[in-house]
Amino acid sequence: MDSVTQAALGAVVAGAVAGRKCSPKILLAGAALGTLPDLDVLISYGDPVSDMVKHRGFSHSLFVLLPFSFLLSGLWQKWRPTRFSFSQLWLLVAACLVTHPLLDAMTAYGTQLFWPINIPIAVPSLFIIDPLYTIPLLLVILASLLWRDRIAKLCRAGLTVSMLYIAWSVSAMNVIDNRVEQQLVGTPLAGQPVFITPTPFNTVLWRVLVKGEDNYYEGLSSVLDGDTEIDFLQKPLGVWPKELASDHQKMLEHFTGGFIKYELRQSNLVASDLRLGMGEQLAFQFALAEKDGEWTSIDPVKVESPRGRLAQIPNLWLRLLGNQDIDANLCHVSECPKPDVPLASR
């Protein structure tokens, strides 16, 4: 999640744990602790692919954060004595640190909660920026500063609301997952990998990816849709040359769970992570090889994707409300390509 959200969550968690001993300084400390794991963005791993894949690694691991919270609590108690016992202080520090990766695990890219075991954990039910999750936390912090005698109660209420919103997001994702599963029964894509994640800034409209053998299928489904059948668009996955070895390509395949496409752009082979973005506007794209007679691996180069158009925002809103004349590219369905194979028995 974004830094503002993580800071707000850290502050509210600190207030909830501190109870009657809470103060604005504790909220500030909680906000700082809540953003601390993301300082790993300052570390360069040598190339853009490694920087993306290894972010949310050791600094987000429960195996690192829990021991680190003991060390940090001990130093805090030694140099800045507080009214907290060591166990209370450790619980506050640990809670602020650990809730950061746990929240990140609810987004499309997840996090390596058990680093050094290289298994990203992701339940992609939240977009990386979600005002409906963040704003209540910010309001709780503001209210806590105005009514300081009620800080603990306000923070606990805010934390409860945040957990209820996460529960809603998981429930909504399961609704969409059931729709996809039912639609794919009896089609060539039954049993194929599926990736479901919310569209920007909400948990009502969901983006659905289905990975086939040579193509992937992209569609939108809103919780408010009257017709639950998803109108998929078919797009090519491309292929990675079998004769070409690349550690970075293997890293991306593992990191994306196979939701990756390859395109030849001029003389470069570009790998795109399909999980974050929409249509052709994908956030992470890398040139990994070039062709000059034969394929040759190159040092990864990040490729900028086309910027989103402000004109698409009204279409996104209409689609969210259940207008099914808008497709995964946020254009009118009549103007967009259709699949070569049927995705449902009609």
TrEMBL record:
Q: Which Gene Ontology terms cover its molecular function?
A: hydrolase activity
Q: Report the Pfam families cross-referenced here.
A: YdjM
Instruction: Write the protein's name.
Output: Metal-dependent hydrolase
Q: Which domain of life is it from?
A: Bacteria
- What stretches pass through the bilayer? 58-77, 89-109, 121-147, 154-176
Task: Name the UniProt key words of this record, in alphabetical order.
Answer: Hydrolase, Membrane, Transmembrane, Transmembrane helix
